[in-house]
Amino acid sequence: MKKLLLLCVVACLAVPTFAKDDEDQNKAEDRIKAASTVLDEIESAPDQGIPEEVLGSAECVAVVPTMIKGGFIVGARFGRGVASCRTPKGWSAPAFFTIKGGSFGLQIGAQAVDLVMLIMNDNGMKNLLSSQFKLGADASVAAGPVGRHAAADTDWKLKAQVLSYSRARGLFAGLELSGAAIDQDKDATRQFYGRMVPFKTSLTGTIDAPANAYPFLNTLAKWAKTAATK
Question: Helix, strand, or coil here: 184?
């Protein structure tokens, strides 16, 4: 009888743990789906979005659904995102990251924005693979050009390792992100993969992307292919 009672107690204690694991897994998958939606909506907008030449040249794409900006006098930024890079086999397994940083200026209130960052060259990719770097210090960053095509006289190819964009209240524009720090989101990584997976392992194609990553990867591949054929 005592053994049966003990088993019942253990089982009851385990249920919340399993429920939390499922909840955490769902949060990581929800971020994948939200990033897919953001990218799809931005690229589907007529005469807006990321220029095809720019997206077609990007080494990696990172999306942060709903980054919070705001504050009183001193602003703050924080968001959780997901990234993928080109590999010989296609777009890589996703890497989960956080982005945070402060900005000074006269600003009151808060605003939620969707953020897209394009890593444009090998140096930018090396910084991303380090899983911890600061935009503007470790990696040069600039507001990206907007439109279906980049103007012929723009110097986006030479301008920065990272080009950044934001969407707020339906408006899409280049965004200056200097000073923001990017770090690996270790909690989300463990939740999604069931273990710790370094950026270098996921983003270089060392591991295959799990099935639940494809809402984002398929959307990314679709728009990258469209950009490359233009």
Answer: strand
Residue 134 in this model has a pLDDT that exceeds 60 = yes
Output the six-digit token pair for 136: 């503007």
Distance CA 58, CA 122 (A): 10
Neighbour count for residue 53 (Cβ, 10 Å): 18
Does residue 158 sit within a domain? yes
* 85-100: burial string, b at 16+ Cβ within 10 Å, e else: bbeeeebbbbbbbbbb
Residue 5 lies in a domain: no
DSSP assignment letter at 53: H
- Mapping DSSP to helix (H, G, I), strand (E, B) and coil, where does residue 89 land? coil
| Number of helices and strands in the chain (H, E) | 7, 8
Count of domains for the chain: 1
Radius of gyration, CA atoms only, the chain: 20
Determine if the pTM surpasses 0.70: yes
Pairing verdict, β 162-168 and 95-119 = antiparallel
- Asked if residue 203 is part of any domain, the answer here is yes
Q: Which domain holds residue 119?
A: 10-228
212 phi and psi angles, rounded to 5 deg: -75, 0
**How far apart, in Å, are the Cα atoms of 134 and each of 13, 176, 178?**
42, 13, 8
Q: Of 77, 47, 73, 164, nearest to 115 (Cα)?
A: 164
The Cα–Cα gap between 148 and 56 comes to 12
Measured CA to CA, the distance from residue 197 to residue 199 in angstroms comes to 7
pLDDT, tens only, 55-89: 999 999 999 998 766 554 455 678 899 999 999 99
